[in-house]
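During the reporting period the student researcher (J.K.) took over the structure-prediction task from the postdoctoral fellow and processed the backlog of single-chain submissions. One of the processed entries is reproduced below for the supervisory committee.
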Amino acid sequence: MITTLLFISVCFLAYANGANDNFKGVASLYGSGATNYRRALTWATVSTLAGSLCALFLANALLVKFSGKGVAPDALIQSIPFMAAVATGAGLTVIIATRFGFPISTTHALLGAIVGGTLAAAPDAINIAALQKNFVLPLLLSPLIAILLAIAVYSTLKQVRQSLNIGEDLCVCTEDFLTSKANFVVLQTTSVTVAQETDWEITVDNAVDCQKRQAAKILGLNVERVLNGLHFFSAGTVCFARGLNDTPKIAGLLWLAPNFAIEWVIVIIATGMALGGMLNARRIAETMSHKITSISPGQGLSANLTTAFLVTFASKLGLPVSTTHVSVGALFGIGIRNRTANIRMVLSILLAWVSTLPCAALCTAGMYMLINTPV
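J.K. obtained the following structure tokens:
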């Protein structure tokens, strides 16, 4: 009975993780208008699922419990009732945050769940030093580093773009009222006052011809298409890496359960994450894409490059950073650079991050006491 409860709790956590996390990698695509919500969600689902399933081939190397190991005694972590309470408490925390549109870290929800379960089972056994290392430092440092790096990356890419005389296309639409045929003129500039310059001329033509005439090219390549392709690729890379990292982490919660083949566990968790993203990601998508800052495709590419670099670098060094904190920090950095950041929303997200640990702790403590209540 308790093993079944553990399995259901882990599946619930996988669903909540997908709902809160899957869209984060492609938020810049949707927010910048590079694609619509449905296409961005499809790309997030496919790339995350691919990363999750790749864990099948790396299961032995990647199968870890979670970064909170060491906070609680090993005797508790090796207890199935304790693990069931942890999975349930973390899942409830993540799904509640998703319901209100707040992007939070599943890893830190798990850490808070461990704290709550330990408080309920053995209050004197919590390792405060491990708690500070795995929660306080990443929470404070990773978003700050992401903000600074995103500003640097975007400023550098902007300088390169200006040095190559590559502008962003603007389109003026006119309509022939006799034929009701719309025509377009594309101006390769970021200034809407360009028509006032004496050396510019506005020409009316169809959209296809305008794009052919105005598309910037380097070595025969359409620069805008290359940048858009890089933007999509970077978004997919972030989603892939997150799926590869989070799937075995959640699967590790079932390490103690008997009669579960780890390969099938990973497949089930990958499916749960995909379903959570497809069915319950809209609120997170709106927060990440539109409520932190307004962005252009180039700015979105800068945010994704920042996220991918920091998460990869931190993983290489074994530093416990959160993809959520890094991606939000990168978007906020772009907003600061362009003076379009929504400070109120960012403060609300920060409050949600701080609340993650106590919320997960309370949910898990209650669940643990419920499980261990004599019938």
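The committee noted the following: Strands lie at 169-176, 181-188, 217-218, 221-222.
J.K. will present the remaining backlog at the next meeting.
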